[in-house]
């Protein structure tokens, strides 16, 4: 029948109920009954929660199973919003007293991600709607002072908590429901107010928002990710190689991974000025997390300029037709300390990054295609040694099997 | 204030120490500076001395006059030109058809307007700058014609006039002055406005060494479609003294006859539609070496000189336009009735006329003061003053035309009246011949350079132990800290300003004195990095322009009242009103220039711009947007 675990769980719940009953005085229980519907009064003239539970023990047990069961049964058909709602409807219709609704709501909350409705505000409202209305609203100062129907309030808070965890802002309907169920100053209502205080303020705080739905096509995803890292409106994304799968004559599957690169005009300009006697490096893969997705990118970079090559170009006096670009004063007049607003920051010098790319495969042959594609707009690449310094990082994260990247630097001319 | 002073003084000490070490190489940078600082040859230095808090009253007072004979001569020229513009020029048609009819052009040529400043020996009118300014007032009544003429002689042929040799002058000037040849100035290229480094047009010497082949394209060339003679700037290989090959800009006279000169389609413009602006392409144009203007590789300086000297007439042009507009709108304001009152009885309409009159008065005063300075014997360099006149009058002109249009309300907005055309035409004044932004940089930095030189010179003197300089400095500091009234000698015993303008003169003196200390403290605070502080330089330029404008109106009104010109009391009224208005503006701007001034919003302004430009869009959420 039931597993041992489930029975233990049930007992634990019962013990908890008993303790509560002790704390909150028997009167509380009786008060509730006085105010509840007449049918309830007739059936249960004087029942604490504990009594109620023990009386209907078999039924309660059964309902605990059915909650999960209900979802499981439906899940066999399909796990969609529609089926999830149907389960909720079935529960609501089953029993006018909504017996065992707390357990049911907990079960529903747990099942939401499986049905893919964990980000659906309407479903949360529907879940809240399961609570019977007006029953748990405190009616006098004593009730208001003490924790009125703590289990139900706790459950209401849990619903909001789950919404919070999924970053969902409640709406007016949620508020109306909470007021109807728990009253104006209840714990769930407080939780709601806190959510409404912070969530709208946090909603657009990220200056680089990531959409909830990332592009499905790996090419589009690469485009999106590269523009995101580059953060330069002028940067141009180029698809150096389209993904391509074909069956060759021998029956083997020949596939070509995609290669997408990004480079800004500034980077192009910088690369053109690169000293050809110094090698360029293709490095990577580096990880970029987009919510739950991890993608990898590669960079083309050089070592930082040695100090002897860092010469500041003198201002050409015959540069500007209209005004002097530089004042010519005998004394070295620098900015006064009081007007120097710059911060003193210890900067670690890094080499310039000339371009970035993402590819379907991280092997040298694929990345070499990127470099040869770049060469069209950056002829200097043909005259400079390019060293591949690839790590075997992404293999365990990427599902596609990759050939072992060579750790030894190779010269690509 | 006195604390600030002490702080400055401590900076002297800081500056003194490192200098001792490198005292050996003082000569070289000084020589180099001649090249950097091109206006250092001038003997007139009214505007520059303002940066030191000095008023060089001999230069601006008394207001320049012309002799009776000259005046008669001017009037002789002016009346036929005025008649021609009133009767034979159909501005509406020129604007509509975007072309100046050939008969109008011929008329202009017959009047000699294509060679106003070319010496008489080359067939021009040989007029002085003052006379040129006077004619400019009339010519400006049609924007298209004014720009066509200016492109021809203010910049187009100026190169030959100021830097050409005798043969070049004798060959080209006679035909240019009659208008047989039209000239154009070809400097701007794609990607090169003020930046000489991005000029791509190249001139290569042919193997026989007798010709240059010019290749490249120039854009926005006024008269580009009409011109027969082009002043073209192109890169050439030059071997300098050290035997190194260098890429330098040279100026060439190019005839359309040489071949390989192609003009593009005329640009469709907002205003000055009748003037011809187009792209000019040079494709292997063969230019004989004799046609290089000045030295090979000396083109940069020539271009700069042409640009600097080309813009002074704009002041009088603006004034001429506004005077005409006042007549036109006053007529309307006097006759149109609303609520049984004519428009001229309404305060807000009256204010517009006051603004227009004041602006015209100030522009005129500045323009003719500058022209007078330029006409003095020698070769005075008044490029700073000319730039100030250009900035002031272009902006004032824009405001006034807009106000004039406003007086007519909806009527002014229609094509039935010329106001909308004036509005479109005068918008170009803020843009061409150096945008006002660039000219402000020029104005402020030229002065800063001058002041910086003198101030660092003083520091050196003090270092050498020159007690006089130290005492002078201390004296000034003491005077300032006690708030004693400034007396720069404009009024009083040897005064040059009429007593009825004494209050305004005092205001000018106070402003000038404060300006001197402001510049000094700016130099101490920012040093050479002042070139990057554009918002500060903008204010410095604005204050200087205002100071020069005050000087001009004071000088002119003093003369008028002293010799009893007609309506001189009106001039005094205008001058006093302008001075007191500008006095407060100056004070405000100079307060903004003080350290940690709460009036100064520059940091916030820069931040706003930065945030907008980072996104390249207006980034605020829509007011109807919600978060929940």
UniProtKB/TrEMBL annotation, chain A:
<dbReference type="Pfam" id="PF14784">
    <property type="entry name" value="ECSIT_C"/>
</dbReference>
<dbReference type="GO" id="GO:0005739">
    <property type="term" value="C:mitochondrion"/>
</dbReference>
<dbReference type="Pfam" id="PF06239">
    <property type="entry name" value="ECSIT_N"/>
</dbReference>
<keyword id="KW-0809">Transit peptide</keyword>
<protein>
    <recommendedName>
        <fullName>Evolutionarily conserved signaling intermediate in Toll pathway, mitochondrial</fullName>
    </recommendedName>
</protein>
<dbReference type="InterPro" id="IPR029342">
    <property type="entry name" value="ECIST_C"/>
</dbReference>
<keyword id="KW-0496">Mitochondrion</keyword>
<keyword id="KW-0391">Immunity</keyword>
<keyword id="KW-0963">Cytoplasm</keyword>
<dbReference type="InterPro" id="IPR010418">
    <property type="entry name" value="ECSIT"/>
</dbReference>
<dbReference type="GO" id="GO:0007178">
    <property type="term" value="P:cell surface receptor protein serine/threonine kinase signaling pathway"/>
</dbReference>
<keyword id="KW-0539">Nucleus</keyword>
<dbReference type="InterPro" id="IPR046448">
    <property type="entry name" value="ECSIT_N"/>
</dbReference>
<dbReference type="GO" id="GO:0045087">
    <property type="term" value="P:innate immune response"/>
</dbReference>
<keyword id="KW-0399">Innate immunity</keyword>
<comment type="similarity">
    <text>Belongs to the ECSIT family.</text>
</comment>
<dbReference type="InterPro" id="IPR011990">
    <property type="entry name" value="TPR-like_helical_dom_sf"/>
</dbReference>
<feature type="domain" description="ECSIT C-terminal">
    <location>
        <begin position="264"/>
        <end position="391"/>
    </location>
</feature>
<dbReference type="GO" id="GO:0005634">
    <property type="term" value="C:nucleus"/>
</dbReference>
TrEMBL record, chain B:
<dbReference type="GO" id="GO:0050660">
    <property type="term" value="F:flavin adenine dinucleotide binding"/>
</dbReference>
<comment type="similarity">
    <text>Belongs to the acyl-CoA dehydrogenase family.</text>
</comment>
<feature type="domain" description="Acyl-CoA dehydrogenase/oxidase C-terminal">
    <location>
        <begin position="297"/>
        <end position="444"/>
    </location>
</feature>
<keyword id="KW-0496">Mitochondrion</keyword>
<keyword id="KW-0472">Membrane</keyword>
<dbReference type="InterPro" id="IPR046373">
    <property type="entry name" value="Acyl-CoA_Oxase/DH_mid-dom_sf"/>
</dbReference>
<dbReference type="InterPro" id="IPR009100">
    <property type="entry name" value="AcylCoA_DH/oxidase_NM_dom_sf"/>
</dbReference>
<protein>
    <recommendedName>
        <fullName>Complex I assembly factor ACAD9, mitochondrial</fullName>
    </recommendedName>
</protein>
<keyword id="KW-0274">FAD</keyword>
<dbReference type="Pfam" id="PF02770">
    <property type="entry name" value="Acyl-CoA_dh_M"/>
</dbReference>
<comment type="subunit">
    <text>Homodimer. Interacts with NDUFAF1 and ECSIT. Part of the mitochondrial complex I assembly/MCIA complex that comprises at least the core subunits TMEM126B, NDUFAF1, ECSIT and ACAD9 and complement subunits such as COA1 and TMEM186. Interacts with TMEM70 and TMEM242.</text>
</comment>
<keyword id="KW-0999">Mitochondrion inner membrane</keyword>
<dbReference type="InterPro" id="IPR013786">
    <property type="entry name" value="AcylCoA_DH/ox_N"/>
</dbReference>
<dbReference type="GO" id="GO:0006631">
    <property type="term" value="P:fatty acid metabolic process"/>
</dbReference>
<dbReference type="InterPro" id="IPR049448">
    <property type="entry name" value="ACAD9/ACADV-like_C"/>
</dbReference>
<dbReference type="GO" id="GO:0005743">
    <property type="term" value="C:mitochondrial inner membrane"/>
</dbReference>
<dbReference type="InterPro" id="IPR036250">
    <property type="entry name" value="AcylCo_DH-like_C"/>
</dbReference>
<dbReference type="InterPro" id="IPR006089">
    <property type="entry name" value="Acyl-CoA_DH_CS"/>
</dbReference>
<dbReference type="GO" id="GO:0003995">
    <property type="term" value="F:acyl-CoA dehydrogenase activity"/>
</dbReference>
<keyword id="KW-0007">Acetylation</keyword>
<dbReference type="Pfam" id="PF00441">
    <property type="entry name" value="Acyl-CoA_dh_1"/>
</dbReference>
<dbReference type="InterPro" id="IPR037069">
    <property type="entry name" value="AcylCoA_DH/ox_N_sf"/>
</dbReference>
């Amino acid at each position: 029948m039931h597993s041992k675990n489930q029975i233990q769980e049930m007992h634990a719940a019962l013990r908890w109920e008993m303790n509560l009953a002790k704390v909150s005085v028997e009167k509380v229980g009786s008060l509730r009954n006085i105010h509840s519907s007449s049918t309830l009064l007739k059936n249960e003239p004087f029942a604490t929660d504990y009594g109620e539970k023990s009386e209907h023990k078999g039924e309660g047990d059964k309902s605990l199973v059915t909650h999960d069961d209900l979802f499981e049964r439906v899940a066999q058909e399909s796990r969609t919003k529609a089926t999830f709602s149907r389960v909720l409807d079935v529960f609501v219709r089953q029993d006018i007293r909504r017996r065992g609704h707390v357990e049911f709501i907990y079960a529903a909350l747990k099942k939401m991600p499986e049905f893919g409705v964990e980000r659906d505000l309407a479903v949360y409202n529907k879940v809240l709607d399961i609570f019977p209305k007006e029953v748990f609203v405190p009616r006098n100062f004593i009730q208001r002072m003490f924790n009125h129907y703590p289990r139900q309030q706790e459950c209401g808070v849990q619903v909001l908590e789950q919404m919070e965890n999924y970053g969902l802002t409640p709406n007016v309907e949620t508020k109306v429901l909470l007021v109807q169920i728990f009253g104006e100053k209840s714990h769930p209502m407080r939780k709601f107010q806190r959510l409404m205080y912070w969530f709208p303020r946090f909603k657009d705080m990220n200056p680089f928002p990531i959409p909830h739905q990332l592009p499905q096509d790996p090419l589009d995803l690469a485009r999106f990710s590269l523009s995101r890292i580059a953060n330069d409106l002028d940067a141009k994304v180029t698809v150096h190689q389209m993904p391509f799968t074909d069956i060759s004559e021998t029956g083997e599957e020949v596939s070509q991974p995609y290669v997408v690169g990004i480079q800004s005009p500034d980077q192009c300009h910088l690369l053109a000025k690169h000293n050809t006697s110094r090698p360029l490096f293709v490095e990577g893969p580096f990880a970029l997390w987009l919510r739950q997705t991890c993608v990898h990118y590669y960079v083309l970079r050089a070592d930082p300029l040695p100090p002897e090559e860092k010469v500041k170009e003198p201002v050409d006096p015959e540069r500007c037709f209209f005004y002097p670009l530089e004042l010519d004063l005998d004394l070295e007049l620098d900015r006064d300390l009081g007007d120097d607003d710059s911060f003193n920051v210890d900067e670690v010098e890094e080499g310039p990054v000339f371009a970035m790319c993402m590819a379907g495969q991280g092997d040298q042959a694929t990345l070499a295609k990127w470099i040869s594609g770049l060469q069209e707009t950056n002829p200097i690449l043909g005259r400079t040694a390019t060293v591949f310094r690839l790590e075997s990082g992404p293999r365990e994260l990427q599902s596609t099997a990759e050939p072992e990247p060579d750790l030894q630097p190779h010269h690509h001319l | 204030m006195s604390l600030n002073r002490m702080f400055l003084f401590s900076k002297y000490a800081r500056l003194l120490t490192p200098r001792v070490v490198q005292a050996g190489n003082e000569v070289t940078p000084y020589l180099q500076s001649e090249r950097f600082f091109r206006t250092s040859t001038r003997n007139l230095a009214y505007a520059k001395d303002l940066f030191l808090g000095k008023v060089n009253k001999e230069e601006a007072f008394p207001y320049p006059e012309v002799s009776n004979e000259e005046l008669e001569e001017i009037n002789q020229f002016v009346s036929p030109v005025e008649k021609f513009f009133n009767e034979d020029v159909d501005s509406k048609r020129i604007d509509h058809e975007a072309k100046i009819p050939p008969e109008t052009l011929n008329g202009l040529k017959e009047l000699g307007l294509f060679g106003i400043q070319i010496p008489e020996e080359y067939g021009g009118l040989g007029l002085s700058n003052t006379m040129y300014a006077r004619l400019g007032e009339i010519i400006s009544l049609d924007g298209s014609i004014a720009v066509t003429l200016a492109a021809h002689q203010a910049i187009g042929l100026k190169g030959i006039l100021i830097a050409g040799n005798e043969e070049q002058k004798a060959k080209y000037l006679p035909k240019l002055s009659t208008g047989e040849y039209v000239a154009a100035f070809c400097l701007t290229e794609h990607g090169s406005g003020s930046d000489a480094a991005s000029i791509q047009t190249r001139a290569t010497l042919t193997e026989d060494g007798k010709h240059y082949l010019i290749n490249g394209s120039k854009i926005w060339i006024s008269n580009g479609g009409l011109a027969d003679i082009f002043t073209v700037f192109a890169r050439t290989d030059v071997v300098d003294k050290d035997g190194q090959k260098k890429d330098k800009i040279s100026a060439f006279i190019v005839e359309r006859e040489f071949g390989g000169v192609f003009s593009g389609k005329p640009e469709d413009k907002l205003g000055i539609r009748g003037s011809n602006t187009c792209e000019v392409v040079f494709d292997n144009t063969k230019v004989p070496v004799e046609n290089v203007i000045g030295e090979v590789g000396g083109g940069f300086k020539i271009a700069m000189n042409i640009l600097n000297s080309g813009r002074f007439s704009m002041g009088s042009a603006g004034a001429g336009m506004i005077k005409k507009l006042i007549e036109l709108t006053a007529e309307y304001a006097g006759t149109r009735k609303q609520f049984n009152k004519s428009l001229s009885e309404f305060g807000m309409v009256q204010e517009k006329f006051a603004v227009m009159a004041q602006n015209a008065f100030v522009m005129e005063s500045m323009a003719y003061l500058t022209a007078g300075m330029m006409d003095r014997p020698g070769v005075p360099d008044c490029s700073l003053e000319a730039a100030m006149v250009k900035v002031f009058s272009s902006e004032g002109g824009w405001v006034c035309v807009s106000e004039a249009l406003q007086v007519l309300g909806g009527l002014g907005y229609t094509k039935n009246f010329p106001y909308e055309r004036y509005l479109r035409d005068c918008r170009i004044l803020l843009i061409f011949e150096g945008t006002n932004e660039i000219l402000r940089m020029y104005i402020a930095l030229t002065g800063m350079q001058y002041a910086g030189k003198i101030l660092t010179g003083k520091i050196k003197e003090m270092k050498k132990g020159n007690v006089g300089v130290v005492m002078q400095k201390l004296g000034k500091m003491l005077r300032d800290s006690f708030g004693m009234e400034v007396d720069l000698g404009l009024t009083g015993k040897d005064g040059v300003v009429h007593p009825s303008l004494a209050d305004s003169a005092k205001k000018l003196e106070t402003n000038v004195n404060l300006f001197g200390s402001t510049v000094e403290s700016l130099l101490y605070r920012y040093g050479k990095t002042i070139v990057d502080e554009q918002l500060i330089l903008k204010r410095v330029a604005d204050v200087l322009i205002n100071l020069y404008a005050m000087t001009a109106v004071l000088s002119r009104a003093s003369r008028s009242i002293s010799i009893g010109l007609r309506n001189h009391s009106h001039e005094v009224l205008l001058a006093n009103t302008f001075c007191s208005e500008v006095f407060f503006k100056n004070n405000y701007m100079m307060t903004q220039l003080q350290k940690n001034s709460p009036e100064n919003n520059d940091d916030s302004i820069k931040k706003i711009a930065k945030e907008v430009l980072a996104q390249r869009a207006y980034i605020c959420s829509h007011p109807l947007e919600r978060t929940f």
